[in-house]
Amino acid sequence: MSTPNTQASEERAIRVMVVDDHPMWRDAVARDLTESGFDVVATAGDGPGAVRRAHAAVPDVLVLDLNLPGMPGVQVCKELVGSQPGLRVLVLSASGEHADVLEAVKSGATGYLLKSASTQELTDAVRATAAGDPVFTPGLAGLVLGEYRRLASDPAPAAPDQPKVPQLTDRETEVLRLVAKGLSYKQIAERLVISHRTVQNHVQNTLGKLQLHNRVELVRYAIEAGLDDA
What pTM value is reported for the model? Predict the structure, then answer.
């Protein structure tokens, strides 16, 4: 006998919220995602509305434009990632400017896709983002990794009474080393022969121990510690 409730739970559609100030574009993206099997739980056309509705709808993935009235997209990203730890943000923007890409990632975005992407590229990116994997329009991933390394070459000064960094387990250190090398969670899982969920758990535990907030800070820490060269 099948167990519909269990199956439905295991196959729960990814909850997505679409934020864009252009109604026709916003509706088109929401429609494409719905037709691809995602659960579009909310949409918004301005920054403050995006924050309010995201708190109420609790999406898994926020598909976010950067140019929003009322509050910039990067600020929306910062507020929501800081208050909803399980939320992943995929920026979908017309801008391919390096400054915009880096600012979005520093604000907590998991990925950055240009609006010229096809529907298939968008749906693939949303699935990868929901899984915690970084997704970038081709050519932008190298830019982001380069910025990680630049930041690491100019580390912030330590606080006077900075507490001792908690000890990571051997496995957490191993996962952190591979994150610093730019591998996706899926690639790390395959390399270490563990599940994707286990990789995510190790990353979340490491973020908590080190009191860091996102992948950017995590990679910066790893590079400063020399783990990318180990």
Answer: 0.68
Higher pLDDT, 215 or 143: 215
Are 176 and 206 in contact by the 8 Å Cβ rule? The answer is: yes
Q: Is residue 150 part of a domain?
A: no
pLDDT tops 70 at residue 163: no
In contact, 176 and 217? CB cutoff 8 Å: no
CATH number (domain holding residue 56): 3.40.50.2300
Same domain? 24 vs 91: yes
8 Å CB contact between 21 and 67: yes
Q: Which domain holds residue 59?
A: 12-144
Whether 6 is in a domain gets the answer: no
3-state DSSP assignment of residue 92: strand
pLDDT of residue 5: 46
Average pLDDT over residues 126-148: 77
d(CA 166, CA 206): 9
Query: Of 65, 77, 80, which is closest to residue 21 (Cα–Cα)?
Result: 65
In a domain, 158, yes or no: no
pLDDT beyond 90 at 226: no
